[in-house]
Write a structure and sequence with these properties.
This protein is of the alpha/beta class. The chain contains 20 helices and 15 strands.
């Protein structure tokens, strides 16, 4: 019998607002444009699903980590035309298209480029967990990953870090070549994790430097190769408890720095569920996200194949050149750099005074104590290629450069707090917020590139015509020499000597020297 429900209360469905109601015609159209279709014989057939690329696998890995594993509500890397909402005292910047969390995306990019990344943040913020997830995505078993994590502490020795000789060989061997070293297994792992690397003693840091920089470790005249590796190091904000100063050479080998996000109140429910379930996200990495060594190698090759267009390379050169320029360092063109100051034991604050005629608010050179090394510039380009690859782009755009720039230059550019730029009340926040500071530096460089584009046009045209004087006839080289010298005179007369002008003059002199050397070579050969 059917039970009588006439006396039970009826649950009324809530009335949906008009904007939430489903359009029946639109719903039917979506069904008709799906993978299913009716064939000529009346049977239902399905078209093949779109082929997934290697880059798509990393995009799905990002989505899983950001929404299921660690949950990252702080989206500080965004693209497209930005907009903002709120008041002047509280602005919320909204992306025009995609938005990502740097804490998740940058480590994934590091896995693609096989470089060295440091997580910084207070204890318990997920630094080691994120590094562990990267190792699991690279195909390592969870037990092996946890066993392979190297924990920095003041008593860490070379043997603890790298391994040691077999005791029997120490007794029997008549030469160091006969001593066999039992190397630690983590050295050859695809993903290497060093927890609290700033607590490792100085001598042991030197051995770690060789492994990171040169890709090999050496003991008793025996060596082991590390192979292609993505490094993940962690460092707590607190520097107490026996922490050692990181040697400058080791710090210089770090290619990117990522800050751990704080706890967001909205994550408490998820954390409570994990406590109740007694599980961690490392235990449930989806199998279809795990990469083989061959897939990682192929993805790394794909990343290096991403093109960096000339316009983007020019923008990067203009930006980095402004950071290294110092008009007061020397009267000679080649030595007007901050390296000249450092060799003399001077700081930018010592010479960046009223004696320098440049506008301290407009010119970027005043904001930094140094420029960027070629090694850091290569890391910037490589991470930008990885980001473009991750986004499904065939070439690097200025937005890719801007997005990765704060993380690759985070520890490479010391600020000059005495700069008049930082004395303005609206700019003082940049002394603590380095990420936003680096973004505004780049945005100013982009604006300056546009402003100087008309006056630099002839210089760049000369550069293209004089780049290879070997293939020119001797009279043509003479004419180009004259044109280059004329252009140098024009640049000096028409523009002030700032970083952009300095870069153009150095370029023009380089062209002049190449043409002059080629003429001298031809004259000496008869």
């Amino acid at each position: 019998m059917t039970p009588d429900t006439s006396n039970e209360p009826v649950a009324l469905a809530p009335v949906e607002p008009a904007e939430a109601r489903v359009d029946p015609e639109q719903l039917v159209r979506s069904w008709l444009t799906g993978r299913a279709h009716v064939g000529g014989d009346g049977a239902v057939a399905f078209t093949d699903a779109p082929a997934r690329t290697r880059a798509d696998k990393f995009r799905r890995a990002y989505d899983w980590i950001a929404t299921r594993a660690l949950l990252a509500p702080y989206h500080d890397m965004d693209f497209g035309t930005h907009s903002a909402t709120g008041l002047d005292t509280c602005r919320v910047h909204l992306p025009g298209s995609a938005g990502y969390a740097s804490f998740v995306l940058v480590p994934l990019l590091n896995l693609l480029v096989n470089r060295r990344l440091v997580f910084v943040g207070a204890p318990g913020r997920g630094k080691t967990t994120m590094a562990t997830l990267m190792a699991l995505l690279a195909g390592a078993p969870l037990a092996a990953v946890r066993k392979g994590v190297q924990h920095g502490h003041p008593q860490l020795t070379l043997a603890d870090l790298l391994g040691g000789p077999l005791p029997s060989d120490l007794v029997k061997a008549e030469s160091s070549e006969a001593i066999r070293v039992r190397w630690r297994q983590w050295i050859t792992a695809r993903v290497k994790i060093i927890d609290e690397y700033n607590r490792i003693p100085t001598k042991t840091q030197s051995a770690l430097l060789s492994l990171m920089a040169e890709g090999y470790a050496e003991q008793y005249e025996q060596t082991v190769q590390s192979g292609p590796s993505a490094w993940y190091l962690t460092a707590n904000d607190e520097q107490g408890g026996g922490t050692f100063q990181v040697i400058e050479a080791l710090r210089d080998r770090i290619d990117a720095v990522v800050r751990c996000p704080p706890l967001h109140p909205g994550l408490i429910d998820t954390l409570a569920a994990r406590v109740a379930g007694g599980a961690t996200p490392e235990e449930f990495v989806p199998a279809d996200l795990i990469c083989t060594a061959e897939e990682l190698d192929a993805a790394a090759a794909d990343v290096r194949a991403v093109a960096v267009p000339p316009a983007v390379r020019e923008l990067i050169g203009l930006f980095l050149g402004q950071l290294d320029f110092c008009r007061r360092a020397s009267d000679r063109l080649e030595y007007q750099t901050k390296d000249t100051l450092h060799i003399a034991g001077k700081r930018v604050g010592h010479v960046c005074t009223e004696d320098c005629p440049l506008d301290k608010s407009e010119n970027l050179c005043t904001q930094t104590e140094s420029g960027v090394s070629p090694r850091a510039a290569q890391a910037l380009l490589h991470f930008a290629q990885a980001l473009a690859y991750f986004r499904g782009r065939g070439e690097v755009g200025a937005d890719d450069i801007r997005a990765v720039l704060p993380w690759t230059l985070h520890d490479k550019l010391p600020q000059n707090p005495q700069s008049p730029f930082f004395q303005k009340p609206e700019n003082r926040v940049y002394l603590t917020d380095r990420v936003s500071w680096l973004w505004q530096l780049f945005d100013r460089a982009v604006a300056q590139q546009a402003a100087h584009a008309p006056t630099r046009k002839r210089t760049l045209e000369l550069a293209r015509t004089c780049a290879a004087p070997v293939g020119l006839a001797t009279p043509d080289i003479g004419r180009r020499l004259h044109a280059v010298r004329e252009r140098m005179d024009e640049v000096v007369r028409e523009t002030e000597l700032n970083a952009v002008t300095h870069a153009d003059l150095v370029l023009l002199k380089d062209l002049y020297v190449k043409c002059r050397n080629e003429l001298d070579r031809r004259e000496s050969n008869g």
